[in-house]
Design goal:
mainly alpha, Aldehyde Oxidoreductase, domain 4, extended
């Protein structure tokens, strides 16, 4: 295993999860035309949008399911990032009585949730 590559794959997975939680959204107009059909229109996180973080790995025994004994790592960052980000937003809004918010958790959705909780 190359640790640098493995850490890079997890970092990319975390970025993907943060993007899914906060900005990525497929949008269609009333006639069914896709409006977010290119990377010019479909929001994805960039490197400067990412927080700093450190990760580590637990060593396990090789798998018997392939001749290399290798296990995948690339998507593992995605699985935890989505609920961590959404739950952090909900936790931050809990004092206003907000208990749920739909993804992507855009700035507009947060603003509308706060306005709705404050009665206007």
């Amino acid at each position: 295993m190359n640790p640098l590559i493995a850490h890079g794959q997890v970092h990319g997975g975390i970025a993907q999860g943060i993007g899914q939680a906060l900005v990525e959204q497929t949008v269609y107009d009333a006639g069914g035309q896709l409006l977010t059909g290119s990377f010019m229109d479909y929001a994805m996180p960039r490197a400067d949008d990412m927080p700093a973080f450190e990760g580590g790995f637990d060593e396990t025994t090789p798998t018997a399911l392939n001749v290399l004994g290798a296990k995948g790592v690339g998507e593992s960052g995605t699985h935890g990032a989505v609920p961590a980000v959404v739950n952090a937003v909900i936790d931050a809004l809990a004092e206003l009585g907000i208990r749920e918010i739909d993804m992507p958790v855009t700035r507009e959705k947060v603003w509308r949730a706060i306005r709705g909780a404050r009665g206007g």
